[in-house]
Amino acid sequence: MMDFIVSHYNYWIYIVLMMIGFYGMMGKRNLVKKLIGMNIFQTAIILYYVSIGCKKGATVPIIPEEAHGVIHHINPFNYINPLPHVLMLTAIVVGIATTGVALALIILIHRQYGTLEENEILEIRKND
Amino acid sequence: MISKNLPVLIVTVPLMTAFLVVILGLLKRKLCYPIAFLATLASFIFSAMLLEKVILHGTIHYYQGGWLPPWGIEYVVDHLNAAMLVLVSFVSLMSLWYSGPSAEKEIPKSKIPYFYSLYLLQITGLLGIVVTGDMFNLYVFLEITSLSGYALIAMGEKHAPMAAFNYVIMGTIGACFYLLSVGYLYIVTGSLNMADLARLLPHLYGSKVVLTAFVFFIVGISLKMALFPLHIWLPDAYTLAPSSVSTLVAPTMTKVGAYVLFRIIFSVFGPHFSLEVMPIAHNILGWLAAGAVLFGSIMALAQRDFKRMLTYILVAEVGYIVIGVAIANRMALTGAILHIINDAFMMSCLFLVAGAIVYKTGTRDIYQFRFLHKKMPLTMAVLIVGALSVIGVPPMCGFFSKWYLILGALAAHKWVFIAVILTSTLFNVAVFFRVIENAYLEPREPAYAHDGGQPEIVKFDEAPIGMLIPMFLVAIGIILIGVFSGHIIASIIKFAIPANI
């Protein structure tokens, strides 16, 4: 059991981080805290993707060109998989865009209600 | 040259125009609308050409930059895609046409270039989701659609930013779950191409990782398509959005979500996986969808606000589509695909009408619709076409998809779903007759009793022609799809359903 947990530690870390983020989004009343939760949630998934591309003892996937332009025998076990990392570049960009939009919305909301507590905003909306 | 690159042009033209609009908007604001219109028109024409090509010659594969799959990004256009492309680009074109007069009133002048830029990005994303054959590419387009959607919705009425913020949180969870599902599939297969995944997955059906990926996918996409009980963000967001935005996102976003659900379940995982390895998924989906239909219909009846009422009907309509997917026999799937097409038209029609009423009277309260048939007779005629179609009266398209769904449920002996569909039809009758009654019939208590017995003179005061034409085109579309539904099934939908069902 212990072995199982330790050998999959990257997955456990991502799950724990994701749940922290999820709690932040669902359990917190302050909108900025919700946004921070969302960021943790997204980062957990980025971490997960980055970790699945890694291999023990492997190096960056740059193949040195040997003499006369001939590439010799390549063992894929010596190189990490770069594809998940590349995918995460896109996901990071998406994450930043989402955070930007959400922050802009938070500014609008604060201008409108003068508060960022969800329960107070609901109260104001109800009285409106 | 153009005909060879059609699949990518559909996406590229609105994408590039989105940037162009912002730059041109700085010079001359009046140019934004016609240019955005032309770009969407181009997308629509390209989609129509693609549909014709697909019907004549079968599936089209397009390799981005000449990279062959599974390494490069592949665009695949088969019968289902091509029909969805035409549908989405047509509805977008109608909304964009309509947004000319509508946005002028609702959006501050200085924001018009950004508004059209976002509008085009939204259309880009929707078309991209439909046309792509790559799982990760789909995620990127999903996020383009959502991000532009958040911003567009926040441009709406007083409480719109708060609704948009809730949508950001829910939408991000949905997209992240989808991304996780892609990651799980990548771990076991090492591929992101849909066709390649479909080839590799059958050997891995026993794997727990594939099961987890499937569950993450279903939850993620249910959030995006607002399947009950994950619909909470939808009514607020779509009610408070500007009317030119809700006419775009309400018919298309949920339908494209339903398309993704259909595509991934049947083309990537394969019907064998969800039906035989994991039949419980179809059961759960079915019950949730039945809940959605009943909940949406009942909640619609409880609303006074016309647009909010429509959003709850939208929740119910998503339920109809998912009922078809959950039953998963040939009849029911025909009904589900036909309902995706029909519902895009019906929702487009009704939201266009709602926008026109708000434009002229400034109210969405059903009880203030009095004398509207004298004031806006043409708009009310379109409303009746849409309403009859949602209820399911034969010449309109809504009848045929409900008919196929009921036939499918009969064949599968799922009596509960038949009861649910029929009950919700009754609710729809009540919902729309309440609107029609208020708009058409003279109030029993004369409204003019207090001011000296003079009858209130209601003048003919229709919405501008730029709003009326799209409404009429969509209404005509509803009737034509109804009349020609047999043709649509025989030439498109028949080929869209997996052969071994």
Q: Features of this protein?
A:
heterodimer; A: 128 residues; mainly alpha; Helix Hairpins; 5 helices; elongated; B: 501 residues; two-stranded antiparallel ribbon; 20 helices
What do these coordinates show?
The complex is a heterodimer of chains A (about 130) and B (about 500). Chain A is mainly alpha-helical and about 130 residues long. Chain A has helices spanning about 1-5, 10-25, 30-50, 85-115, 120-125. In chain A, helix 2 (about 10-25) packs antiparallel against helix 3 and helix 3 (about 30-50) runs antiparallel to helix 4 (about 85-115). Chain A is elongated, with a radius of gyration of 22 Å. Chain B has a domain at about 280-500. Chain B has helices at about 5-25, 30-55, 80-105, 110-130, 135-155, 160-190, 195-200, 210-225, 235-240, 245-270, 270-275, 280-300, 305-325, 330-360, 370-375, 375-390, 395-410, 415-440, 465-485, 485-495; strands at about 60-65, 75. Chain B has a two-stranded antiparallel ribbon with strand order 1-2. Chain B is globular, with a radius of gyration of 22 Å. The interface of A and B includes residues 83, 84, 94, 97 and 108 of A.
List the helices and strands and how they pair.
The complex is a heterodimer of chains A (128) and B (501).
Chain A: H1 2-7, H2 9-27, H3 31-52, H4 83-113, H5 118-127
Helix pairs in contact in A: 2-3, 3-4
Chain B: H1 6-27, H2 32-57, E1 60-63, E2 74-77, H3 79-106, H4 112-131, H5 135-154, H6 160-189, H7 194-200, H8 208-225, H9 233-240, H10 243-269, H11 271-277, H12 279-301, H13 306-327, H14 330-361, H15 372-375, H16 377-391, H17 397-411, H18 415-440, H19 465-483, H20 485-496
Antiparallel strand pairs in B: 1-2
Helix pairs in contact in B: 1-2, 1-4, 2-3, 2-4, 3-4, 3-10, 3-14, 3-19, 4-5, 4-10, 5-6, 5-10, 6-8, 6-9, 7-10, 8-10, 9-13, 10-11, 10-13, 10-14, 11-12, 12-13, 12-18, 13-14, 13-17, 13-18, 14-16, 14-17, 14-19, 16-18, 16-19, 17-18, 17-19
